[in-house]
Amino acid sequence: xxxxxxxxxxxxxxxxxxxxxLREQERQASQKLEIDEAKAYENLExxxxxxxxxxxxxxxxxxxxxxxxxxLTTQINLKLxxxxxxxxxxxxxxxxxxxxxx
Length: 102
Fold this sequence. Notes:
By secondary structure, the protein is an alpha+beta fold. The protein has three helices and five strands. Strand 1 (55-61) and strand 2 form a beta hairpin. It is elongated and about 65 Å long. The termini are far apart. 6% of the residues are buried. It comes from Campylobacter californiensis. This is YolD-like protein.
């Protein structure tokens, strides 16, 4: 009976969300790299051919770091110049490199 009662009280860290928020805050913003016009044009050509469900890999700047992301596109909005991969929304201007996977 005593052991059953102990199972009810699992380990709990009430400060876990605080420590996660502090780690995010500690990230230093890095300066966004500029890409040349030819690469930007190449990226836009690839983006204009994409449709939802395409498997892609891309590298983009999230305001802090360069992030490499692979996955299926869920939405492409050419008018707003945004692409969604899973639940991540990315502006076309933040993309350094994009490739369409087979």
